[in-house]
Write a structure and sequence with these properties.
The protein has three domains: 170 residues, no CATH class; 234 residues, 3 Solenoid (Pectate Lyase C-like), CATH 2.160.20; 104 residues, no CATH class. The protein contains seven helices and 29 strands. The chain starts with 51 loop residues before the first helix and ends with a helix.
Length: 571
């Protein structure tokens, strides 16, 4: 990868190497592999490597925005990852609109009317007082600043009676076949801009499947604002542009990078390890459908005299001329909306056959930006919490419970900079059918710079559904690693570059999807306990050297700092 102007880039080491002691950096040309000049002689259990995490952190701090293995995620989450999420005042009480806290009548119309009243008021909280509310329809939040607020996940309970298939219709897959897209989209509490939601649900009823990307419509409908010039690099905050007319501080825009005929952009996302040159990108048609890469960002400064703009976080990739880098418009996202303080319970039905989910889904955030879910539990869901083309959203203190879910947490279709923290996956209360897969915390579809932090997973795995997600972090998590990953071969690699797993305790000792040093390019596996391959085992997608890091292996207590995301946020 190209070095950033923000500082020197630290070393990368071989797929099997363990670093310890002093870390040396080999001088390398820009874009060439960077190799460490010292390897740890300790055992596989990490003898002599107890200081590895602290040393790697010190190396990262010296050049935090363009480290070759560790991504900068210090601004992941709503409003830059703040601990202090908004607390809008109550502008509507669902009881005043006829909601029944005893659960005898369908409360969906009343709650939806209260949501509409809050939207009409320009935003605010809709209070759902303690009680049990039956809903025979889904709840949709489509206006900025509207928050559905219960009085705590232990006090306000919503009981759903009908699936999304019952309510809207069968949502077929844009990839053909008999798959149900409710297996990875839609929620019984669904946050999505109203225009986008209407076009999507109307298309479902008409059995015509639109593209599910950030634009929410055909990609040729974007408008170019300005070209990016000067070849800025991964980690740069300020970029030169061809013109600044019409740009202003605070604008929400898309950074758009198009791939070339040789698929060098995709290779860049994979860290440009040697195996990317021989990888058959062209045959991965599902993967290639995800480009151009579209990364929502905000302009924090516009210098009309210098012809530069400054972004709200550093560039996620190089912006080389051959990828036609530019800033474009985007369909307006949903901003400042949320769900908090409630439990959603679905019927305890057996989970459907794999990829045929009927859509007893929990909370979906689609084309949402700076939105949040806080103190929410979902029970007996097909899919728990879904981030679909979501940007900078926070899921805090959330729980998935009840019978097994297909995707307890799903992050897909170019979702970036989201934060899932304080999350819990509770064990199943009843076993699903034998052919049901349970994945865990999923990320796919070129989604980048997302964080899963402070989690307790009694089931599941650190799932990738292919589509080459890159630059994502899982940190301070305990997991019973009994799930499987998914994804078909046309979606391409399991991992792009700069995946980091930091301070992870695997209670059943299974390595799959957690120990990354022999499978994920330019990744870092730091302070995990000793694990063994068994169950689902994958070969690396790229042949040859992967330039990965394995530090403080065998000892999660050696994690220094304890939580990678929190430490980056505090930098």
């Amino acid at each position: 990868m190209h070095a950033s102007g923000s500082g020197s880039v630290g070393p990368a080491v071989g797929r099997r190497a363990l670093l310890g002691g002093a870390i040396g950096v080999a001088v390398a040309a820009v874009g060439a592999p960077r190799l460490a000049n010292a390897a740890n002689a300790g055992s596989a259990a990490g003898a002599g490597n107890a200081a590895g995490a602290a040393e790697l952190w010190a190396e990262y701090v010296a050049a935090p925005y363009a480290h070759p293995q560790i991504p900068f995620v210090g601004r992941a989450g709503a409003f830059g990852g703040t601990d202090d999420l908004p607390n809008p005042e109550v502008v509507a009480n669902a009881l005043d609109f006829g909601a029944d806290p005893d659960g005898e009548a369908d409360s969906a119309p009343a709650i939806q009317a209260a949501i509409a009243a809050a939207a009409e008021a320009g935003g605010g909280a809709v209070l759902l007082p303690a009680g049990r509310y039956r809903i025979d329809d889904l709840l949709h939040i489509g206006a900025d600043g509207v928050v559905l607020r219960g009085e705590g996940s232990g006090r306000t309970v919503i009981e759903a009676t009908r699936s999304l298939t019952d309510l809207i219709g069968r949502y077929g897959s844009r990839y053909g076949g008999d798959k149900s897209s409710w297996s990875w989209a839609g929620g019984l509490i669904w946050l999505c801009p109203t225009a986008r939601w209407r076009s999507l649900t109307d298309a479902i009823r008409a059995e015509s499947w639109p593209f599910e990307g950030w634009t929410g419509n055909a990609r040729d409908e974007y408008e170019s604002l300005t070209e990016i010039t000067g070849s800025p690099s991964l980690g740069d905050w300020t970029v030169q542009v061809a013109g600044t007319d019409g740009l202003a501080e605070g604008d929400r825009v898309l950074l758009r990078l198009a791939d070339d005929a040789e698929h060098t952009l995709l290779a860049h996302m994979a860290g440009e390890v040697p195996g990317t040159a021989s990888y058959d990108w062209a045959s991965r048609t599902k993967l290639t459908s995800y480009v151009p890469y579209e990364w929502p960002c905000r302009l924090t400064a516009v210098d009309h005299e210098a012809g530069t703009v400054t972004l709200d976080r550093p560039l996620p990739l190089d912006a080389r001329p051959e990828w036609d880098p530019r800033l474009t418009t985007l369909v307006p996202p949903l901003v400042g909306a949320g769900v908090e303080g409630l439990t959603l319970v679905c019927p305890e039905l057996p989970l459907s056959e794999h990829l045929l989910d009927t859509g007893f889904n929990g909370v979906a955030l689609q084309c949402a930006w700076d939105c949040w879910v806080r103190d929410v539990e979902v029970t007996h869901t097909d899919n728990g919490f879904l981030l679909v083309s979501a940007k900078g959203c926070t899921l805090r203190d959330t729980t998935v419970s009840g019978r097994g879910s297909h995707h307890p947490y799903c992050c897909r279709e170019g979702s970036h900079d989201n934060l899932v923290e304080g999350f819990t996956l509770l064990d199943r209360t009843s076993p699903p059918p034998a052919n049901t897969q349970l994945h865990g915390i999923n990320v796919e579809g070129l989604s980048s710079y997302n964080v899963w932090s402070r989690g307790r997973m009694e089931m599941g795995t650190f799932d990738s559904h292919r589509g080459m997600p890159f630059a994502n972090v899982r940190t301070e998590i305990t997991v019973n690693n009994n799930g499987t990953h998914g994804g078909d071969d046309t979606a391409g690699p399991l991992y792009g570059a700069r995946f980091t797993h930091w301070n992870v305790t695997v209670t059943n000792g299974r390595a799959g999807m957690i120990k990354l040093d022999e499978i994920a390019p330019r990744s870092a596996t730091v302070a995990i306990n000793e694990v063994t391959e068994f169950g689902q085992i994958d070969q690396p997608d790229f042949v040859g050297e992967l330039h990965t890091r394995l530090e403080s292996y065998g000892d999660p207590s050696a994690a220094d700092p304890v939580n990678l995301h929190a430490a980056q946020r505090d930098l």
